[in-house]
Design goal:
Elements lengths: L1 H14 L13 E6 L8 H5 L6 E6 L7 H12 L5 E7 L9 H10 L4 H5 L3 H5 L5 H14 L9 E6 L6 E5 L2
Parallel strand pairs: 1-2, 1-3, 3-4
Antiparallel strand pairs: 4-5
The chain binds zinc ion (ZN).
Length: about 170
Amino acid sequence: MLDEVLKANEEFVQNFEPEKMSHMPQKKLAIVTCMDTRLTNFLEPAMGIERGDAKIIKNAGNAVVDRDVIRSVAAAIYALGAEEVMVVGHYECGMANVNPEALGTTMKNRGVDEKALNEVDLRDWIGAIDDEEENVRVVVEKIKESSFIPDDVPIHGLIIDLYDGKLKVLVEG
Ligand code: ZN
């Protein structure tokens, strides 16, 4: 795969018109969303977001399970001028179908120390979710409740349909 990527990059660079851009998000927006492959080149146009417009934080299941997402949202707000946050989930999320037992077995078979596995609740650790809409609401709440996020920043919650691209507002921040 590395060779394929480097070959694609060679062609890309040849055809690309270099441009200088600011690292500040032009739409003063931070988005927390899922790493789902189907969102690539899909979520941005569906939201009217172009290169340079928004800070996009992605992880499995657009979840807040540790301080990492909060850290990135805080950086977007305090260091990069974001004034609004949108948590965007999607239906049919892979994290809604995680089987912790099967996952634990797979990890063990791949050499993960059983002791390390026993020290965590694998369901929580991996960020498994029950319901995609509920997860968006929970994540919005967690970001809002963080001591590091100012009260004057609206935190919205949305969910996107992967087939037709329709966004639904779940929380108006
Ligand atoms: Zn997902």
